Task: inverse folding
């Protein structure tokens, strides 16, 4: 039986999951604060000597290629091996994977390791599926709807969940699909919020039975907090602290009441 965002946020707050985040230098502090505000316990642990050991004790692992380098890749591989050996979920954020040969190759190698969840913007998801992408560096420039078939294809390849984010979000596991509305146009003007959302997908995956339910809950939590924070914000600067406050203030009941999740009747709907 599926678990609702309300149930999953209650579970997360009752027992804050330890989330190992191998993320980029831009996102480290921002994502840690987002996870703490939402109710999780982040740890940015990436060196290959300890990343695999840590992944075995964490509730979930998240892997982000935003500031890519060889030491990061070694740490990612060790951590994924540890997470898989311990049966822990892991989430991939393919930041700017369309941009360079190193990123295309690394992202493809990581996809081949079958992430439990992939979360990216539309340009990244199109690129991962081998399609033309208009992404500019880390910023998405394609519409979410343009990447929905790519997401379904990727989900079928990996057996995992794929989330495409943007003005409204799309989630599929190949069989089920849903759209999530909400958020704020100030969100893409705040760096590393996508990276932080990937971290939150890991937090929900740590407490959920089903990574599809976990992804819906994480995206809904962001969408509801983003919409609340937009009210009264005067721009991206004043939005940022309001967003952290809103992530913290959203109760399980409010998440249940305010989340706008629309299940699609069947794949392709
Ligand atoms: N125009 C928008 N309106 C509302 N929410 C948005 C908009 N663009 C992005 N978001 C939200 O911002 C968060 C990060 O998504 P996105 O910007 O696509 O990721 P990334 O930063 O990796 O490119 C998601 O919760 C998404 O729903
Ligand atoms: C600006 C930047 N440069 C390398 S990683 C990064 C952060 C990207 O964060 P997000 O994908 O969440 O916008
Ligand atoms: Mg991103």
Result:
């Amino acid at each position: 039986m599926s678990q609702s965002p309300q149930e999953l946020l209650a579970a997360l707050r009752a027992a804050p999951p330890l989330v190992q985040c191998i993320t980029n230098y831009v996102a480290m502090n921002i994502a840690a604060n987002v996870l703490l505000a939402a109710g999780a316990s982040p740890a940015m642990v990436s060196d290959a000597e300890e990343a695999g050991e840590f992944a075995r004790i964490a509730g979930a692992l998240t892997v982000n290629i935003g500031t890519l380098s060889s030491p990061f890749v070694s740490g990612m591989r060790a951590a994924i091996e540890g997470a898989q050996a311990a049966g822990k979920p892991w989430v991939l954020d393919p930041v700017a994977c369309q941009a360079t040969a190193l990123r295309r190759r690394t992202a493809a190698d990581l996809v081949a390791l079958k992430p439990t969840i992939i979360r990216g913007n539309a340009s990244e998801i199109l690129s991962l599926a081998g399609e033309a992408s208009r992404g500019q560096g880390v910023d998405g420039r394609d519409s979410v709807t343009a990447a929905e078939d790519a997401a379904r294809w990727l989900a079928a390849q990996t057996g995992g969940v794929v989330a495409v984010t943007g003005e409204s979000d799309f989630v599929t596991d190949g069989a089920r699909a849903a759209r999530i509305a909400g958020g704020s146009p100030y969100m893409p003007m705040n760096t590393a919020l996508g990276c932080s959302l990937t971290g939150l997908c890991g937090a929900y995956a740590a407490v959920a039975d089903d990574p599809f339910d976990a992804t819906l809950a994480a995206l809904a939590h962001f969408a509801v907090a983003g919409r609340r924070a937009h009210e009264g914000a005067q721009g991206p600067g004043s939005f940022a602290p309001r967003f952290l406050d809103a992530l913290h203030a959203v109760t399980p009941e409010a998440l249940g009441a305010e989340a706008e999740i629309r299940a699609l009747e069947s794949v392709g709907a």
